[in-house]
Amino acid sequence: MIAITILGNNSAIPAFGRNPTSQYLQTTESSFLIDCGEGTQIQLSKYKLKPSKISHILISHLHGDHYFGLIGLLTSMSLLNRKQDLHLYGPSALKDIIDLQLKVADTTLNYTLHFHSLKEEGVIAQTKKIEISCFKVQHRIECWGFLFKEIKNPRSIDIELAKSFEIPASYFEQLQKGEDYHTKKGTIISNEAVTIAANTPKTYAYCADTIFDISLIEKLKGVDLLYHESTYLKDLEERAAARYHSTTHQAATIAKMAGVKKLMIGHFSSKYESIDPFLNEAKEVFNETVLAIEGTCYKI
Amino acid sequence: MIAITILGNNSAIPAFGRNPTSQYLQTTESSFLIDCGEGTQIQLSKYKLKPSKISHILISHLHGDHYFGLIGLLTSMSLLNRKQDLHLYGPSALKDIIDLQLKVADTTLNYTLHFHSLKEEGVIAQTKKIEISCFKVQHRIECWGFLFKEIKNPRSIDIELAKSFEIPASYFEQLQKGEDYHTKKGTIISNEAVTIAANTPKTYAYCADTIFDISLIEKLKGVDLLYHESTYLKDLEERAAARYHSTTHQAATIAKMAGVKKLMIGHFSSKYESIDPFLNEAKEVFNETVLAIEGTCYKI
């Protein structure tokens, strides 16, 4: 299970009650924060999501609407007496900014902050439940997307069935490893006959600020949920390109061509009071679209 | 007229709906922002106060709850196409932080930001209506208080009265300069007889985070409104001292000994859900006390 709660869905300037980008991703094991615009710690509190549960924070790029809330969150975690390690991923200059702000405040964090500079595409973190990789997206400055893949669970033993085939409990460890069972009479009980397949691992891709870029399609193929920015409506394609952003139709085209199961769009420009037209336009191209709505939790 | 709107009254961590420190000070001429905790730009918008009216921003010190909202406000002003100059005052390292954050975002501001490093006590800015000076306060790191003094207006001419004394309009400029009028018959019409005194200039002192420090009294003598932090209730005097903060009784003692007209207390610790006890305790020492309440405008 992957559940994503939207903490902010707006671009650049907070407007019409919409906050800058941040998403809180939960698995049954721990939580992850993706981007951290100004006010994220207040949004976490508003939606009763515990900062203490966050084990990893991923920052896509160093435009303020994606990270100005980070230093406040990091220092608040310390003031709240966090002890467990925190892993932070982002462009290398992020460490300089944090170090400088802690230094001038004569502050040290209570907990260990492991900073991981994003340098090349590939797996950056793995827990028991999830694997995270990063990939490059094309924006005005260095910018990264993130792909979350559940770890494939092994098949589980159907104990009643295994017993009915007279497979001894002492063999269960080997069954778990995928081996077949050979009876004394020479019959082979295939592993699949007495084990149950785990749920298919789910995938979530987060495409931070990006220009319309078809080279992304290969990286996003078949994901269960794709978050793709859609800063503008379709009539502003030129402006979107000039600012390295995307439109509704462009985000939906990527989703369609990558054959994703569902698309979520966000990062709406502050120029729009209503975001309803975003949904209508995206659905013209890709019907399985939802809007990133603050406070809403999307489960995969 | 000086009017102060409270945008945040909490210390350290946002809690119980209270935001970190920021105050918006208005004169009839322009507006000033004092400190800028995270979320200040959202608070400005909530209380319908225009960032475009702000001509000067003053940052007392570099603990996050007093400036983490600054970079967001500065960049939003630029995105909102601000053109007029902005004057920013604070400890010198503040400039390094802003420069670094603009550099990594590959961003330049649309307007000219004049950074003034606070180095010694005295007048730091003067407009037509107000003079601002800074003074040192004792905190864990370099920290400044600010004193706002209205510029004394000249006396205004009582035109009807001046005419009744047959003072020609051509002499009004000299009257305005304070000169008496000599009639042809040799009588002296004193300046005070035909001019009206302006209102007494008002004063506002902002004591940012500070330990209980009686050396402040001399600097705050007789101000109309004193903002003094009161992070803790009176029973936590030891904790207050250890953290270079003050209690209710200490803030009220400073107000009483400095003979100020009114005291406003704020910077309440996140440990307190209700702030009502702060008012009761401060009034035990100095009756003319008010709480800094978010969204409330205090006029002098």
List keywords for this structure.
homodimer; 300 residues; alpha/beta; Metallo-beta-lactamase, Chain A; seven-stranded mixed beta sheet; 10 helices; 18 strands
Write a structural description.
The structure is a homodimer of 300-residue chains. By secondary structure, chain A is α/β, with parallel strands linked by helices. Chain A has two domains: 3-153 and 198-299, Ribonuclease Z/Hydroxyacylglutathione hydrolase-like (Metallo-beta-lactamase, Chain A), CATH 3.60.15; 156-196, no CATH class. Helices cover 25% and strands 27% of the residues of chain A. Chain A has ten helices and 18 strands. Chain A has helices at 40-46, 70-79, 93-104, 159-164, 172-176, 191-194, 216-220, 237-242, 248-258, 276-285; strands at 3-8, 22-26, 31-36, 54-58, 86-90, 113-117, 122-126, 130-137, 143-150, 156-157, 181-182, 188-189, 195-196, 203-207, 225-229, 262-266, 289-291, 297-299. In chain A, strands 6-5-4-3-2-1-18 form a seven-stranded mixed β-sheet. Chain A has a seven-stranded mixed β-sheet with strand order 7-8-9-14-15-16-17. In chain A, helix 3 links the parallel strand 5 (86-90) and strand 6 (113-117). In chain A, helix 9 (248-258) packs parallel to helix 10 (276-285). The N and C termini of chain A lie close together (6 Å). The mean pLDDT of chain A is 96. The A-B interface holds A 12-14, 19, 38-39, 41-42, 45, 62-64, 68-69, 71-72, 75-76, 79-80, 91, 93-94, 96-97, 100-101, 104-107, 140-141, 270 and B 12-14, 19, 38-39, 41-42, 45, 62-64, 68-69, 71-72, 75-76, 79-80, 91, 93-94, 96-97, 100-101, 104-107, 140-141, 270.
